[in-house]
Amino acid sequence: MSETAAVDKLISARWVLPMTNDGTVLDNHSIAITSNRITDICPTETARQKYQAQETLDLGNQLLMPGLINAHGHAAMTLLRGLGNDLPLMEWLEDHIWPAEGRFVDEEFVSDGTQLAIAEMLRTGTTCFSDMYFFPETVAETAQNHGIRVQACFPVLDFPTNWGSGPEDYFQKGLALHDRVRNSNLVTIAFGPHAPYTNSDEPLKRTATLAEQVDLPIQIHLHETAGEVQDSIQNHGLRPTRRLAELGLMSPRTQCVHMTQVDEHDLNLLKETGAHVLHCPEANMKLASGACPIQMLMDAGVNVALGTDGAASNNNLDMFGEMQSAALLGKLSSMDAGAAKAIDILRMATINGACAMGIDDRVGSLEPGKQADIIAVDLGDILAQPVYDPVPHLVYNTNGRQVTHSWVAGEPRLIQGELQRMDLHGLRERVQRWQIAINEADQH
Ligand SMILES: CSC[C@H]1O[C@@H](n2cnc3c(O)ncnc32)[C@H](O)[C@@H]1O
Ligand SMILES: [Zn+2]
């Protein structure tokens, strides 16, 4: 009899969707995990003979896939969920969101709001998120404490905020944070210049130079609305994307959030520079900002990833819902049912997000050697029957509540629908206190 090999965990299920290249679905396969990495994916029968596991989990009629990657959001804005509805972007920001942030955002707000977001994200299948918010040190610490992967983008704006006094202060604090988390397996840092309209040329140029020096990504809201493009032409004589390119800010390290307005020149710039686009369909629809032409971008070879944006403009962080919205909006806006295919949408929510953040050597697909960031989705419920093909099923039928298990770097975060590391009772009480205070202030 041949010797069996020792592994930490062996997880088996009816389907495994590794999200490598062609979107193949493996039937009755197992994933072997040792320490924080995937070591093998093979038929369950083979795995039973080949491995001696400390822990085995047979998930039956479930599907294992890479944890979802929410490529753009503002986690702590969960505390502002539902504040200012049925408004366009600038009215929503100027009349409701920015006044509330000015009054309430501090470390405690960011800690509680980020915990609320992490609970929702882990509960609905996200194992890695990008965040652009004030007090990114608190975001990084909270993510690390709760065992979820994060790209924390530190804000850069022309003006002072509750987090700092201006661009130089933001750079200094952001880079110090990068130094502190350099060896973390879960946390990476990015520059987060908020938008072209909240940054003058100097901080944008400096962002480009510093990001190059320290080799970090840059995330920026860009071409969110037609008004933003018109204002830029009026104030700078250039469309925002061209202005950023001339300031040296468009490159493979750049993550452009929204891009609902894309003309031929913008498309060429995205192609030539290798910048990524982060699509947030639900926030774009809710604020009636426009629709990002995702099929045109993908056809041109631009990497498109998916994000929810903040819970105040969405109003949830469920990436399964976001995938469905991306597919439906992608088809409707191009009047082509063959556009925004399910497998492409799944790529946007997994491997493409990892590529945009420069962490695709670690996560985004299930492959030996990669980190064990895995989710299990229950496709056995009567409401999900019948299942002809799991790939379109995941995009057009599934919602985040069907996620039963998740692991980040091999560690369990959600088991049978139960979050493993969170005091939800205490969190609920703190959130209620924030709601009362914020609501009262918003009325005045
Ligand atoms: C500088 S921290 C992030 C900043 O962005 C604001 N914000 C949230 N959603 C959007 C959006 O869709 N477009 C532009 N800005 C947005 C958030 O409230 C923070 O102030
Ligand atoms: Zn945003």
TrEMBL record:
Signal sequence coordinates: none
Residues that bind substrate: E101, H194, E224, D309
SUPFAM superfamilies per the UniProt record, alphabetical: Composite domain of metallo-dependent hydrolases, Metallo-dependent hydrolases
Alphabetical keyword list: Hydrolase, Metal-binding, Zinc
The protein's role, per its UniProt record: Catalyzes the deamination of 5-methylthioadenosine and S-adenosyl-L-homocysteine into 5-methylthioinosine and S-inosyl-L-homocysteine, respectively. Is also able to deaminate adenosine.
MF annotations from Gene Ontology: 5'-methylthioadenosine deaminase activity; metal ion binding; S-adenosylhomocysteine deaminase activity
Catalysed reaction, written as an equation: S-adenosyl-L-homocysteine + H2O + H(+) = S-inosyl-L-homocysteine + NH4(+); S-methyl-5'-thioadenosine + H2O + H(+) = S-methyl-5'-thioinosine + NH4(+)
Pfam families, alphabetized: Amidohydro_1
Class of the enzyme per the UniProt entry, highest EC level: hydrolase
Residue intervals of the Amidohydrolase-related domain: 64-411
EC number: 3.5.4.28, 3.5.4.31
Zinc among keywords: yes
Official protein name in the record: 5-methylthioadenosine/S-adenosylhomocysteine deaminase
Lineage: Bacteria, Pseudomonadati, Pseudomonadota, Gammaproteobacteria, Halospina
Cofactor(s) in the UniProt record: Zn(2+)
Family classification: Belongs to the metallo-dependent hydrolases superfamily. MTA/SAH deaminase family. Belongs to the metallo-dependent hydrolases superfamily. ATZ/TRZ family.
Domain of life: Bacteria
Binding site for Zn(2+): H72, H74, H221, D309
Comment on bound cofactor: Binds 1 zinc ion per subunit.
